[in-house]
Amino acid sequence: MSITGDLIRGHTDTIILAQLIKEDSYGYQINKAILDKTEGRYELKEATLYTAFRRLESAGLISSYWGDENTGARRRYYRITPAGRNAFTQMKNEWEEAKLTIEKLVEVQE
Amino acid sequence: MSITGDLIRGHTDTIILAQLIKEDSYGYQINKAILDKTEGRYELKEATLYTAFRRLESAGLISSYWGDENTGARRRYYRITPAGRNAFTQMKNEWEEAKLTIEKLVEVQE
DNA sequence: ACGATATACCTCGCCTGTCAAGGTATCTCA
DNA sequence: TGAGATACCTTGACAGGCGAGGTATATCGT
Q: pTM for the complete prediction?
């Protein structure tokens, strides 16, 4: 497990957008990529993942389309929008700031 | 504002415990210390702060007692328990791990 | 004398994101 | 044929953050 829900909370959207910057992808693949990148230490729960997709699409940060595989299970692909790229940059900045702040606050002063 | 609720979520308890490691303190002072340490960029909302105190006390990580000031408003002081110190160490480790994980995941791969 | 501001505490109820649990359908391989 | 992987989805419970509201005391300027 390692990372609990509340520690990751608020990063889910950023993490998903990050996976879509380079190329379009679909739910299952995105989660596999996350699992790989973290060497098995973290994966999004499916319910969380799909909730996030809905949220991001409503917000106009991603758009979706069905893949045209003619074999295997159908896939819904997601594409990051220009607004999504802006939002991602913003979120990364916020994370950098938050990281420094948290770092400062969990440090025990001598 | 800078840090939104969901980014800080899950760190509230750790932050409060960190302020109590060195010495006992009370709500208002803890929040002021946080404000100082972050140069005004962050403070816990009062409702969040007091909710956290209740939670931490229920969990046995802090204990509380009324100060004996004979002037000014009454103060409820909080003291970290041995279990609280252990929990704090654990929480800091989890944060270190989470930080590395998030860092890896919000990075855009070339 | 009086209002504003700071100190200091507290609770209620809403909102939002996570996730356990359940479901569907297709393909591969033993 | 049946287990396991791929791939999607929804519902409802739960928990933490926080806006809004409340109480009481002390200080300081006018």
A: 0.90
